[in-house]
């Protein structure tokens, strides 16, 4: 259960016996299209959402970072700045903090001792990048307090390094980059090779609806890292740096050249990159029926070629598609194996989507879905500083 910012300030003052004088914020994200393309140097089209992680802070004049996790029953961590950073044996949330500290230290950023209180409302384990929101808000916190400002892209890379080298998930750059560089009212087309970010305005007539299937599965220990290895094997076969460097013609004979599984993984990434670029164009042109088709194809490709969807998610996608048809788009979003569906829904159909899900999903899956209507939001920011 997350706290309001006012409650978090009260908690900070009560716990650390002094008021916080910095406040940082970073959002979660939903990806509209371009799944498992980021670590293949490809294209993604996410938007930041109006669910955030908040960090309150003050310098403590000590050689230690003291952290209070409001959403975890006020669990605490202390990270000495004078010793090597070790994994926390019990608290996974603490490993994201420690990972960011280590990643900054490896870039020779001299951190200062500080007290932090953290709370956020990004749903966890749902594929909406609560961990990236935490990493990015912390990257902004530590570099600001150390008076060593970093670009938002570098803060995003720092968070990714924490994830890859400390937490142990070989994720790409999408989640951290959109959390850092989201733009209010816009999706962002990201070239994950150059890290160029281009805003694409969201059509006024569509609501961004996120449906949490409540099928939970973390990325660490899941099939995520295996998918990445399969993609790298595919790129190696073709002698290219990354699958980004292939187009559909280059893989015309793929099923005679590669084993069936690797061939389908490669086909997903190559076609998904093309769909993502086409979807950004369709959004910009307000061409909703093309967008609708591209999102449907993306879902089918994730289901059949990349094999990262699960039956309750496939069911939600077909249920929503039955309501909105080609007036909007719907697909699974995020790393897969559970988590959320994203739907772009005409405002007059949002209630019907909610009604259909409430009426049918529980008996089909044994689960209750949460439905959120989100606003495409701005990326990380320093909310207050002395
Ligand atoms: C997760 C990862 F963290 C991202 O880098 C990305 O690969 C995504 O899964 C799939 O598109 O969110």
From TrEMBL:
<dbReference type="InterPro" id="IPR036554">
    <property type="entry name" value="GHMP_kinase_C_sf"/>
</dbReference>
<keyword id="KW-0460">Magnesium</keyword>
<comment type="function">
    <text>Catalyzes the transfer of the gamma-phosphate of ATP to D-galactose to form alpha-D-galactose-1-phosphate (Gal-1-P).</text>
</comment>
<dbReference type="InterPro" id="IPR006203">
    <property type="entry name" value="GHMP_knse_ATP-bd_CS"/>
</dbReference>
<feature type="binding site">
    <location>
        <begin position="35"/>
        <end position="38"/>
    </location>
    <ligand>
        <name>substrate</name>
    </ligand>
</feature>
<dbReference type="InterPro" id="IPR006204">
    <property type="entry name" value="GHMP_kinase_N_dom"/>
</dbReference>
<keyword id="KW-0963">Cytoplasm</keyword>
<comment type="pathway">
    <text>Carbohydrate metabolism; galactose metabolism.</text>
</comment>
<dbReference type="InterPro" id="IPR019539">
    <property type="entry name" value="GalKase_N"/>
</dbReference>
<keyword id="KW-0299">Galactose metabolism</keyword>
<dbReference type="Pfam" id="PF00288">
    <property type="entry name" value="GHMP_kinases_N"/>
</dbReference>
<dbReference type="InterPro" id="IPR020568">
    <property type="entry name" value="Ribosomal_Su5_D2-typ_SF"/>
</dbReference>
<comment type="similarity">
    <text>Belongs to the GHMP kinase family. GalK subfamily.</text>
</comment>
<dbReference type="Pfam" id="PF10509">
    <property type="entry name" value="GalKase_gal_bdg"/>
</dbReference>
<feature type="binding site">
    <location>
        <position position="163"/>
    </location>
    <ligand>
        <name>Mg(2+)</name>
    </ligand>
</feature>
<feature type="binding site">
    <location>
        <position position="224"/>
    </location>
    <ligand>
        <name>substrate</name>
    </ligand>
</feature>
<protein>
    <recommendedName>
        <fullName>Galactokinase</fullName>
        <ecNumber>2.7.1.6</ecNumber>
    </recommendedName>
</protein>
<feature type="site" description="Transition state stabilizer">
    <location>
        <position position="29"/>
    </location>
</feature>
<dbReference type="InterPro" id="IPR000705">
    <property type="entry name" value="Galactokinase"/>
</dbReference>
<feature type="domain" description="GHMP kinase N-terminal">
    <location>
        <begin position="95"/>
        <end position="182"/>
    </location>
</feature>
<dbReference type="InterPro" id="IPR022963">
    <property type="entry name" value="Galactokinase_bac"/>
</dbReference>
<feature type="active site" description="Proton acceptor">
    <location>
        <position position="175"/>
    </location>
</feature>
<feature type="domain" description="Galactokinase N-terminal">
    <location>
        <begin position="11"/>
        <end position="59"/>
    </location>
</feature>
<keyword id="KW-0547">Nucleotide-binding</keyword>
<keyword id="KW-0119">Carbohydrate metabolism</keyword>
<dbReference type="InterPro" id="IPR014721">
    <property type="entry name" value="Ribsml_uS5_D2-typ_fold_subgr"/>
</dbReference>
<feature type="binding site">
    <location>
        <position position="131"/>
    </location>
    <ligand>
        <name>Mg(2+)</name>
    </ligand>
</feature>
<keyword id="KW-0418">Kinase</keyword>
<dbReference type="GO" id="GO:0004335">
    <property type="term" value="F:galactokinase activity"/>
</dbReference>
<keyword id="KW-0067">ATP-binding</keyword>
<keyword id="KW-0808">Transferase</keyword>
<dbReference type="Pfam" id="PF08544">
    <property type="entry name" value="GHMP_kinases_C"/>
</dbReference>
<feature type="binding site">
    <location>
        <begin position="125"/>
        <end position="131"/>
    </location>
    <ligand>
        <name>ATP</name>
    </ligand>
</feature>
<keyword id="KW-0479">Metal-binding</keyword>
<dbReference type="InterPro" id="IPR019741">
    <property type="entry name" value="Galactokinase_CS"/>
</dbReference>
<dbReference type="InterPro" id="IPR006206">
    <property type="entry name" value="Mevalonate/galactokinase"/>
</dbReference>
<dbReference type="InterPro" id="IPR013750">
    <property type="entry name" value="GHMP_kinase_C_dom"/>
</dbReference>
<feature type="domain" description="GHMP kinase C-terminal">
    <location>
        <begin position="280"/>
        <end position="362"/>
    </location>
</feature>
């Amino acid at each position: 259960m997350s706290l309001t910012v006012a409650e978090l300030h009260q908690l900070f003052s009560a716990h650390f016996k002094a008021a916080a004088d910095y406040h940082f914020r970073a959002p979660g994200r939903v990806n509209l299209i371009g799944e498992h393309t980021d670590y293949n140097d490809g294209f993604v089209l996410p938007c930041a959402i109006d669910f955030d992680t908040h960090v309150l802070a003050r310098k403590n004049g000590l050689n230690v970072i003291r952290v209070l996790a409001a959403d975890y029953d006020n669990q605490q961590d202390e990270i000495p700045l004078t010793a090597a950073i070790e994994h926390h044996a019990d608290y996974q949330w603490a490993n994201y903090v420690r990972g960011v500290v280590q990643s900054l230290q490896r870039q020779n950023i001299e951190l200062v001792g500080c007290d932090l209180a953290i709370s956020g409302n990004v749903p966890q384990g749902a594929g909406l990048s609560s961990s990236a929101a935490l990493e990015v808000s912390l990257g902004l916190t530590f570099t600001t307090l150390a008076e060593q400002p970093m670009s938002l892209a570098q803060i995003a890379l720092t968070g990714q390094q924490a994830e890859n080298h400390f937490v142990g998930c070989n994720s790409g750059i999408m989640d951290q980059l959109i959390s850092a560089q989201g733009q209010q009212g816009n999706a962002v087309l990201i070239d994950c090779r150059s890290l160029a970010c281009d805003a694409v305005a969201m059509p006024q007539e569509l609501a961004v609806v996120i449906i949490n299937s409540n099928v939970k599965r973390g990325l660490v220990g899941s099939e995520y890292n295996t998918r990445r290895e399969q993609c790298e094997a595919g790129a190696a076969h073709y002698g290219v740096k990354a699958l980004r460097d292939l187009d559909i013609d280059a893989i015309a004979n793929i099923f005679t050249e590669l084993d069936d599984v690797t061939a389908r993984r490669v086909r997903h990434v190559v076609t998904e990159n093309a769909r993502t670029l086409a979807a950004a164009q369709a959004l910009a042109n307000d061409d909703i029926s093309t967008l609708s088709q591209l999102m449907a194809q993306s879902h089918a490709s994730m289901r059949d070629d990349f094999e990262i969807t699960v039956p309750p998610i496939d069911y939600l996608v077909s249920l929503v598609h039955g309501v909105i048809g080609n007036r909007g788009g719907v697909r699974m979003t995020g790393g897969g194996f559970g988590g959320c569906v994203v739907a772009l829904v005409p405002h007059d159909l949002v209630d019907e989507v909610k009604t259909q899900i409430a009426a049918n999903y529980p008996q089909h899956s044994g689960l209750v879905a949460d439905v959120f209507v989100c606003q495409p939001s701005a990326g990380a920011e320093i909310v207050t500083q002395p």
